[in-house]
Design goal:
The complex is a heterodimer of chains A (527) and B (320).
Chain A: E1 15-17, E2 43-46, H1 50-59, E3 66-70, E4 86-87, H2 98-117, E5 121-122, E6 126-130, H3 133-148, E7 155-158, H4 159-165, E8 175-179, E9 183-185, H5 187-200, E10 204-207, E11 211-215, E12 225-229, E13 234-237, E14 240-242, H6 248-253, E15 262-272, E16 283-286, E17 296-299, E18 305-308, E19 312-313, H7 326-339, E20 348-359, E21 365-368, E22 375-379, H8 385-404, E23 445-447, E24 452-453, H9 454-462, H10 470-477, H11 490-501
Parallel strand pairs in A: 1-10, 2-3, 2-14, 3-10, 6-16, 14-22
Antiparallel strand pairs in A: 4-9, 5-9, 6-8, 7-8, 11-12, 12-13, 15-18, 15-19, 15-20, 17-18, 21-22, 23-24
Helix pairs in contact in A: 1-5, 1-8, 2-8, 9-11
Chain B: E1 5-12, H1 16-27, E2 33-36, E3 59-61, E4 66-68, H2 70-82, E5 87-89, E6 93-98, E7 103-108, E8 111-122, E9 126-128, H3 131-134, E10 137-139, E11 145-147, H4 148-158, E12 166-169, H5 173-184, E13 191-193, H6 203-209, E14 216-218, E15 224-228, E16 232-237, E17 242-244, E18 247-250, E19 254-256, H7 259-264, E20 288-290, H8 301-319
Parallel strand pairs in B: 1-2, 1-8, 2-5, 8-20, 10-15, 11-18, 12-13, 12-18, 13-14
Antiparallel strand pairs in B: 3-4, 6-7, 7-8, 9-19, 15-16, 16-17
Classes of the chains: A alpha/beta (527), B alpha/beta (320).
Bound molecules: flavin-adenine dinucleotide (2 copies).
One flavin-adenine dinucleotide binds next to helix 1, strand 3, strand 20 and helix 8 of chain A.
Chain lengths: 527, 320
């Protein structure tokens, strides 16, 4: 029997939570910069979204001292946790743009990459649907544009051809575009798997560390900088990659980075129950407008059906950037119903919103030696960063070699995939692998909607990134994400986490400090 | 339980309704019967309502004309069940059904297993409606947005208050009992909001809970958002009304647990998730029945128990 959660070879990187008095064990707690060693890092990546994690994964293939930092208490908890979860073929990009190039490369990478990361990918393909005469007239140009983006398999479909493929397509459908290169992916596990492999290969990971400033090398131009956390820790680094997404502007201000303007473009989604999944066979895309790709209807890799997103520009730092609104969700239902008949009747399970990092200077702004030698700014990964994470990482490493003098020698001991013994994941259930024979807790459900066992929660807790928040467990196991939204499992789940880690149940949080599950400051009264 | 075992009757769910079915079948001498419960104990929803000094009793025991704690009522039912020959499977969840074959797939500590039966009763109970299902409540996704089940889980299970300044969303009996439980455990006076103009709980029920609290009521809320950064800070309506708090409790408005039926292909109405009954408690496929709160609406625990007994009668008729 495979003992899940064990990694062979051993994990080489260090993992810490900068979480004073927080809900993690002492051994995981960051108290002083000395815990990371005295030797400066060759590269520090600020921002452990899918972009930062992808870069850490690629850099971990070389003999380098690398640090990956995020202010949140898990990787991939920013924009990377709330998106459409699609691998895009780039058929609708601007031909000749960096985005077009990155997506074209990434589309070819993903099947092999998903196999190495051991995350599910479903190449179901997309159909862009024209539902007005005007939209129908745009199809030819869209096809041409796709071919210019080297998506040569894209072709026009007649209304009849669409109905054959999509019996529930709106009766208004006039025609469309078949886009075979679009796929479904698990967006959460992409960041997590990248980061797990990076950690195994020796990348250090520091979570809960808000980088509030950068002390540039002195005299100006000297190659040693310090990252300074909001609570005063100083971390010596030779090179910095600002992959902080919507935090990239504030961070860049700390090192005098060049001009760019970003703002959150909110996208609201509606998630339908699994009974709605058979309604569609492909990713159904609307004909885009100049401002937005519009509301799409797509299955999720988890077997639900998704509609969204909206596109609403909000000011930087607006906390509402990830809030849903009654009005926004109404527009999602309206938009989705233009593509799929009967969508509004489907039972819903949740709404959520993500904030795209919209940059006035365009998608994928990359600056080398920005503000000071050794600093790279990467921002504006607006709508495609999940897909492009792998090709972007390569592109960034190329740039660092050329512009920052980064020298690379491959680490012969580095893994490029998660081992078979990695925690299996919700799509590869232990009881389908015979593990229930040895561990009864793999057969005892705690989340009834998604049928997740207590054993799987314990396996996830033991996995390399030592997830310690409810949301971190949710992204790995799907607990709390079914139709009852934690009604049945919240408290039993907390009991399992507390029992397995020894963390007091009243200390447990949804996603870090300030998000305690019960009013803070109470002592548990044993029943 | 060896895989592929066959029973005369299989009961999905060991709450008051499922227990009622098992007791009713035993009285008629029908067997073998299996009762499958996904929790570690039988008794269902009422079991979470522990008997505590200073606590709030919320379950009406009509047969004795009094209001008791859930675990007292369910405990008495469980005793009656223990006197029968019913095979009881705990920590066993039915994950899939095949209506035509009357086959159930279940996950339990020994693995995955199928059982078949001549008749099946769905007694899976209900849960509370989520904000997304309500449609009029959106906003931030924060900590301390919970359900009544979390109040009982934290309070009765661990002596922890899920909210000190609660905003209760909903206004039925469950919402009032949730408000009373919180207040009795030391919370501030709860605020209660709902889309309805006036509370859906009846006057008698509201008067009963007045002993513990009389929540600050606001009705007619047509669109609102949960406020807060990392944890809930209250609710704000789109027309600017603001209710502060440190936790939002989503209470009542039960949604029947009919997903097995829906995903298995039995007739279920959408988006309400109501079972479509052929007649009485019989479902769209012959040999399938339902009892208790899975039938939709709100019913007290004792009603569910007797509804289970009635289902047993219908099952007996079917088996003849
Ligand atoms: C509605 C919507 C739909 C989308 N659909 C798709 C899709 O289908 N396919 C696709 O490929 N892409 C999609 N995207 C785009 C994709 O989600 C993003 O491009 C990608 O997640 C960006 O990753 P990132 O790492 O740049 O940013 P983030 O995930 O935001 O990561 C940045 C990280 O930096 C951290 N950080 C910020 N400031 C600091 C600081 N000072 N100190 C420490 N840490 C800091 C943050 O906490 C955060 O974790 C969509 C996006 C949205 C919003
Ligand atoms: C949150 C909440 C609070 C309530 N509060 C009150 C109150 O204060 N006072 C009051 O009088 N009534 C209250 N009620 C109503 C009360 O629950 C019912 O009166 C009664 O418990 C319903 O009995 P039941 O057997 O139909 O359902 P339940 O008691 O819910 O029992 C259903 C059982 O089926 C099991 N089950 C479900 N699906 C499966 C499956 N697939 N496999 C195996 N087992 C399964 C469940 O684990 C559960 O034990 C409340 C209901 C809810 C949901």
């Amino acid at each position: 029997m495979t003992q899940f959660g064990t990694w062979q070879p051993k994990i080489r990187g260090k993992l810490f939570y900068n979480w004073p008095q927080g809900a993690c064990e002492e051994a995981l707690r960051f108290t002083s910069a000395g815990q990371l060693g005295v030797e400066p890092y060759d590269v520090a990546i600020v921002g452990a979204g899918v972009v930062g994690c992808g870069l850490a994964y690629r850099l971990s293939q070389y003999d380098l001292r690398v640090l990956l930092i995020d202010r949140l208490h898990d990787v991939g908890e920013g924009t990377s946790k709330a998106n459409s979860a699609l691998i895009h073929s780039g058929y609708d990009a601007k031909p000749g743009s960096l985005e077009s190039k990155l997506l074209h490369e990434a589309e070819a990478d993903w099947p092999g990459l998903a196999a190495r990361l051991k995350i599910p990918l479903d190449p179901i393909g997309g159909i862009m649907m024209a539902v007005t005469d005007e939209q129908e007239r745009q199809l030819e140009a869209a096809e041409k544009n796709a071919h210019a983006n080297r998506a040569t398999d894209v072709r026009i479909l007649s209304a009849t051809e669409i109905r054959e493929r999509e019996p529930n397509a709106s009766p208004d459908v006039r025609g469309g575009l078949l886009v075979p290169g679009e796929s479904l992916v698990d967006p959460f596990m992409a960041s997590i798997a990248y980061a797990e492999i990076a950690l195994a290969n020796g990348v250090d990971i520091l979570l809960g560390a808000d980088i509030a400033g950068v002390e540039l090398g002195q005299p100006p131009g000297a190659p040693l900088h310090h990252l300074v956390t909001a609570d005063g820790h100083r971390l010596p680094v030779r090179r910095i990659v600002n992959a902080a997404g919507l935090g990239s502007r504030r961070l860049a201000d700390g090192y005098g980075g060049g001009a760019f303007d970003i703002n959150p473009r909110r996208g609201q989604f509606l998630l339908f129950d699994k009974s709605a999944r058979p309604l569609v066979q492909h990713i159904l895309l609307p004909v885009p407008t100049a401002h937005t790709k519009g509301v799409l209807v797509a299955p999720t890799i988890f077997g639900n059906l998704l509609a969204g997103p909206t596109a609403e520009d909000l000011p930087l730092e607006d906390p509402a950037a990830t809030h849903t609104t009654v009005e926004g969700i109404r527009r999602v239902v309206e938009g989705g119903s233009r593509l799929v008949d009967g969508l509004a009747r489907q039972p819903v399970i949740a709404t959520y919103a993500g904030a795209r990092c919209a940059c006035s200077q365009g998608s994928y702004v990359i600056r080398h030696n920005d503000g000071a030698p050794g600093i790279v700014t990467v921002t504006g990964a607006r709508s495609t960063g999940l897909t492009a994470s792998i090709s972007l990482a390569r592109h960034l490493i190329d740039g660092m070699q050329k512009e920052l003098g980064l020298e690379l020698s491959p680490d012969s001991a580095a893994l490029d995939c998660r081992p078979d013994s990695a925690w299996p994941g919700w799509w590869r259930r232990p009881f389908e692998n015979g593990a229930t024979d040895a561990r009864a807790d793999h057969g005892c459900a705690v989340c009834f909607c998604e049928v997740i066992s207590g054993g799987e929660i314990r396996d996830a807790l033991d996995s390399p990134l030592k997830p310690r928040t409810m949301d971190a467990l949710k992204r790995r196991t799907r607990v709390l994400s079914g139709r009852c939204q934690g009604f049945d499992c919240q408290v039993p789940l907390a009991e399992i986490v507390s029992g397995h880690t020894g963390i007091g149940i009243a200390q447990l949080t949804k996603n870090g400090p300030g998000s305690e599950l019960v009013v803070p400051g109470q002592a548990e009264v044993t029943a | 339980m060896s895989c592929g075992q066959h029973f005369k009757v299989a009961i999905i769910g060991g709450g008051p309704a499922g227990i009622g079915v098992a007791v009713g079948l035993a009285k008629r001498g029908i067997g073998p019967v299996v009762l499958i419960e996904r929790r570690a104990e039988v008794g269902g929803t009422p079991m979470g309502y522990r008997k505590k000094p200073g606590g709030v009793p919320t379950f009406v025991e009509w047969t004795r004309g009094r209001v008791v704690f859930g675990e007292e009522l369910a405990g008495r039912m469980a005793k009656r069940l223990a006197k029968t020959d019913t095979t009881i499977r705990l920590s066993a969840q039915v994950t899939q059904i095949d209506p035509a074959e009357k086959r159930l797939t279940l996950l339990w500590p020994e693995g995955v297993c199928d059982v078949t039966a001549d008749a099946v009763v769905l007694a899976a109970g209900a849960r509370e409606q989520t904000p997304a299902e309500k449609g009029w409540l959106a906003g931030a996704r924060t900590a301390r947005v919970g359900f009544t089940r979390h109040i009982t889980g934290w309070l009765d299970g661990h002596g922890l208050l899920p909210a000190r300044k609660p905003v209760v969303v909903g206004s039925d009996l469950i919402a009032y009992s949730a408000a009373a439980k919180l207040r009795a455990a030391g919370s501030d006076k709860p605020v209660m909001i709902d889309r309805r103009r006036s509370p859906s709980a009846g006057l008698f029920e509201r008067l009963f809970f007045r002993r513990w609290t009389r929540p600050d009521w606001s009705g007619d809320v047509t669109a609102a958002g949960i406020k807060g950064d990392r944890s809930a800070a209250g609710v704000q309506s789109s027309d600017g009304q603001d209710w502060h708090g440190d936790g939002v409790m989503i209470c009542g408005e039960l949604v029947p647990n009919t997903e097995l039926a829906l995903l298995g292909g039995l007739a279920v109405e959408l988006p309400s998730r109501q079972l479509q009954l052929a007649r009485g408690q019989a479902l769209s496929e012959p040999g399938w029945f339902a009892a208790g709160n899975v039938l939709g609406g709100f019913h007290g625990a004792q009603w569910c128990y007797f509804n289970g007994r009635q289902a047993a009668r219908r099952v007996a008729n079917f088996l003849e």
